[in-house]
Design a protein that fits this description.
Strand content: 35-45%
Strand order of the largest sheet: 2-1-6-5-4-3
Helix content: 10-25%
Distance between the termini: 48 Å
Number of strands: 6
Radius of gyration: 15 Å
Order of helices and strands: HHEEHEEEE
Largest sheet: 6 strands, mixed
CATH class: Alpha Beta
Shape: globular
CATH architecture: Roll
Number of domains: 1
CATH topology: Nuclear Transport Factor 2, Chain: A
């Protein structure tokens, strides 16, 4: 496997999107959320390290279930028809992160909605691997699974209710 050539990335990020782990994860959620219609795929592409992988491992709202290992372009091709016809909002509700040097492993619990302020239609966890390289943060991979009766989100990854 070769080293990713980040210098040839034609998708220039917003500086504020890649300045910190918080910022890049926030941008990741923003790029996939919105009313039915087009998404800003250029912004989405600017967040990911060349060669990054997206890996859904369970039942999904769109598409079939099961394990899929995809490039960013394959994922965009798969979800574009769904986003074109459906309002979809995904937001982070809890995050647990571990950092060593220039890498971070974040478990980001999310809720998906079909309207910005509506009730959740799905919950799950994104496992996000980040790397700091060339003075910015990159998403190296995202693996996720939706919650189900057979696969509940563990308490330590849910918001505390007071």
């Amino acid at each position: 496997m070769s080293n990713p050539d980040t210098s040839k990335n034609e998708f220039k990020p917003r500086a504020e999107d890649v300045a910190s782990p918080d910022a890049i994860i926030k941008a990741m959620y923003e790029t996939i959320s919105g009313p039915a219609g087009k998404r800003n795929w250029q912004r989405e592409r600017s967040l990911y390290l060349p060669g990054a992988r997206l890996i859904p491992i369970g039942k999904r709202i769109h598409g079939d279930g099961g394990l899929h290992v995809m490039t960013l372009e394959e994922w965009i091709e798969q979800v574009t028809p769904f986003f074109a016809e459906n309002d979809f909002w995904e937001m982070e509700v809890v995050r647990h992160s571990d950092r060593f040097g220039n890498m971070i492993q974040a478990f980001s619990t999310y809720e998906a909605r079909d309207s910005k302020d509506g009730p959740p239609i799905a919950r799950g966890i994104n496992s996000i691997q980040l790397v700091f390289h060339e003075k910015r943060w990159w998403i190296a991979s995202v693996m996720w699974d939706n919650e189900s009766r057979e696969n509940p989100i563990p308490e330590e990854f849910t918001p505390y209710l007071w």
